[in-house]
Fold this protein.
Amino acid sequence: MVTSWLLCLGAVALDTVLGEPRRWHPLVGFGALARRVEALAYGPPELSFAARRARGVGAVLALLAPLTVFAGLLERLPYLGVVAALGLLYLALGARSLVEHAQAVAAALQVGDLPLARARVALIVSRDTDDLDEEQISRATVESVLENGSDAIFGALCWFVLAGAAGAVVHRLANTLDALWGYRTPRYQAFGWAAARLDDGLNWLPARLTALSYSAVGSHPAAAWRCWQAQGLVWKSPNAGSVMAAGAGALGLALGGPARYHGEWQARPALGAGLAPRAEDIGRAVALVRRALGLWLAVIVLGGWLLA
């Protein structure tokens, strides 16, 4: 039997070499399916909050339960199960894609092309980007790199180690639903409640392990720890807050602060300590995530050998 640490190394290697599939990515198809389910399940405008929330719970279960069970059954097949587990973890990872998107923003900023930088950062953040300046674009990108390090890399690895391919699949799909429905807007406050709460629950452990790893491999480990403990829980999402506070402290940067979402300004708390981010700090954030990934793989391999 191929042990999970070998599969983790293999999946990370595949993601590093191949990146995400350019065509026919399963997550794209899942997103299209989720939008069809939303259209069927959302219901008429006069529904009560409780009824709409119940429909959201049903939609999440209808989308996630069959696919998670299918992934678990695939993994148990003789011979093919190993290939399936490797492929599913590879598809759940998004390290190279995260790096490529961040580097694309940095490249646009380095040549002074703010419109292009705004267009590129809009692909990885949910805030409004139409009038962001260089500092705001850099801040948004660094925050996205730090947060998505947990969502798109470490969460998948954590749940694969804990629960195999089914764990990686349910984590990645729940995160995708949260990205689609997990907004506190009039449309999704009730319907997206289940997707947001499930994503919060699945990311509780990975987020804290990510914050710990950012603290361990960052340039300012003591500051990272202090920022994590003092600032992480005051963020609207304690998971994202812990990750970004630790990452900001590790990099010696000041993140957070007001940002506009869907046309409305949100008074977000300050995170980290130090200077306002600039274009060059995007590369530093990417390097931090890469060092953290190296630490994770080393721990996973060591744990696999000790438990063998």
Notes: The chain has one domain: 4-307. The chain has twelve helices and four strands. The longest helix spans residues 134-181.
